């Protein structure tokens, strides 16, 4: 996604990072005489004015996405020019009114449309599952760079075995699977809705044969045992809950009202789940295996200090990368020794030919 798209996303979904669910607004639509016979361009202008009056962020972009969606396009600019000036049908007017009423309730555009693109993949979106952010595309790109540069990051089948913690819609997993043809992924999330949506997207993208999707809370003791059948991991990737608890109330209404707070709230210092991931990596990663995390800009220093206080984990913070806004957002942490705690004979010999769905 280009820079303008990244910034547009942040505006459409509300500012800040990443709330329970709120019911969709119901619309008892009645034909509004002034709208009858209006073209797509005129409808965009009408709903832009309505959104602006109600204080909806990025009013024009919201209306353009909604009108384009009803007319069968991803963006207003990609519509055939004849559709810009052609009068809309009563059915199209009704659909636009119903979708716009949801935006007036501050529902994110991604949920309204029911789908969103990530790394060129069209993913189904549904509340309250966490919506993938543009910054996370940069995390995926960094992982791909590292895998390409490090020929030894491969599993028994010629591609890396990857664990994604907190898969949400599956955006990270499916992006890596689609661009690393020999890779296999185990995707876990503690949310039932997220697990269901990841299954749906696996089928949608026809990647179900290379991914294992499991409901799992990584903060529970002994959870490493669930991964024993698959062998040591080459990579662990996660965009975990990392919002500082005291910052939750400052999130935009689109986020607070619709997205799962468990996918956002990282505890007092935003590190509750992160530290469990790092401890889990001590059991699961191969020697020289890597962890890639998306974090709050305050976290690189906090996590670096935490790792120094836990030399028993044999994990080193080796790189920090900034996001497109210049904030330190992504971490590369690497194992510098053998697995800890997990008995060496616990890992089976040959890998399965694929990760079953």
Keyword list:
single chain, 357 residues, alpha/beta, seven-stranded mixed beta sheet, two-stranded antiparallel sheet, 12 helices, 9 strands, 36% helix, disordered N terminus, disordered C terminus
Set out the fold topology:
Elements: H1 3-12, H2 40-53, H3 59-70, H4 81-85, H5 90-104, H6 109-113, E1 115-118, E2 121-124, H7 134-149, E3 161-165, H8 171-179, E4 184-189, H9 192-205, E5 211-215, E6 233-238, H10 253-258, H11 272-284, E7 285-294, H12 299-308, E8 315-322, E9 328-335
Parallel strand pairs: 3-4, 3-6, 4-5, 6-7
Antiparallel strand pairs: 1-2, 7-9, 8-9
Helix pairs in contact: 2-3, 3-5, 7-8
What does this structure look like?
- It is elongated and about 70 Å long.
- It has helices at residues 3-12, 40-53, 59-70, 81-85, 90-104, 109-113, 134-149, 171-179, 192-205, 253-258, 272-284, 299-308, and strands at 115-118, 121-124, 161-165, 184-189, 211-215, 233-238, 285-294, 315-322, 328-335.
- The longest helix is centred in the middle third of the chain and has 16 residues, at 134-149.
- It contains twelve helices and nine strands.
